Amino acid sequence: MKKLLALILLAALVIPCCLAEDVYHLPVDFSAGPKANPDCYTSRETYEDESLSVRMETRDIDRVRYSIAWIKVKSPTQLRTHTAGKPNEITADRPSRMARRQNAVVAINGDFYVQRKDGLIYRQGVPFRYELNEEKDALVIDENGDLHNFVGTKAEELVAFLKEGHQIINAFTFGPTLIKNGEIMPMPETYRTRFDSTVRAPRMVIAQMGPLEYVFVEAQGRNDESIGVTTDQMAVFMKELGVREAYCLDGGNSCVMTFNGRYYDSNYSESEREQSDIIYVVSAVPEDTWQ
Q: Among candidates 279, 249, 85, which has minimal Cα distance to 170?
């Protein structure tokens, strides 16, 4: 564990100099992204500028409503996280409010890390926590914006990952991993017995299609329009979408997705749950360059 900690701290120190020079790169910190150009919301379902493409979609399948955000970015720094408070501070805020504050084009809830005391938790290159729990899966987003699923969160696998020269930009502990290397992962028994994975409920997933191409998916539930899904059912749906990696974030009442500052699901302000963190995507086009 001491070796892992040393590697983690070293990786955190070298992040700023490891990012390739690119006109669309944003600071790897907690600053807000540039404002999105209102003229680039080409419809109520799409956003398109030279740095970002987002297409929203709703699918109703077998009494389940899926909210889907198809995302392409020019720079990995456009896939960002934000927290309601300082590292490990027990502070919460509405995800929709955090999203608006950060100029998010599309945003989803994160893993609500302050509810727990364990896990590998990183935000914007900053290590918040490294209390590994081998009964839980971890998701790491690296310096290239690639998603890496760690099933069981074993220290030796993380050490090997860091020795390959990767940096941890964001890391989450919730799960389970749904898709790894394009294949559905068997559900660990601990998730079946301890984490309500077999119950139909709202589920939130972050997934990667290819380089700098992502999908956010919410399976709505507990309402008249949608009965929710199990994690096994969610894995099948993500496989059908053709994703390369997919990981479950906090679900249930924590699920919320916003687009253009508005809800893109059945949540509304009176029922939205305050949480510790969000994942979001921003434009990288400065306002003073808008055409």
A: 279
Number of domains in the chain: 1
Closest CA to 265 of 7, 67, 42, 21: 67
Q: Please choose, from the candidates 43, 45, 21, 66, the residue with its C-alpha nearest in 3D space to the C-alpha of residue 229.
A: 66
List, for residues 125-173, the tens digit of each pLDDT value.
999 998 998 889 999 999 999 999 999 989 999 999 999 999 999 999 9
pLDDT digits 0-9 by tens, 202-248:
999 999 999 999 999 999 988 888 999 999 999 999 999 999 999 99
Q: How far apart are CA 202 and CA 218, in angstroms?
A: 7
Q: Would 58 be classed as within a structural domain?
A: yes
How many Cβ atoms from other residues are within 10 Å of residue 280's Cβ? 24
pTM recorded for the entire structure: 0.91
Which phi and psi angles does 159 have, rounded to 5°?
-60, -45
Using omega within 30 degrees of 0 as the cis cutoff, is the peptide bond preceding 176 cis?
yes
Cα–Cα distance measured from residue 53 to residue 26, given in angstroms and rounded to the nearest whole number: 17
264: domain range?
A: 30-150+169-289
**198 near 192, Cβ under 8 Å?**
yes
Pair 57, 45: CB distance under 8 Å: yes
CA-based end-to-end distance of the chain: 52
In a domain, residue 84? The reply is yes
Task: Name residue 180's beta-bridge partners.
Answer: 183
Q: 61: which 2 tokens? A: 């399948």
Q: Are strands 183-184 and 257-259 parallel, antiparallel or unpaired?
A: unpaired
What is residue 192's three-state secondary structure? helix
Measured distance CA(257)–CA(261) in Å, rounded: 10
Using CA atoms, how far apart are residues 282 and 272, in angstroms rounded to an integer?
22
43 DSSP assignment: B
Note whether residue 55 is domain-resident. Answer: yes
Q: Is residue 157 part of a domain?
A: no
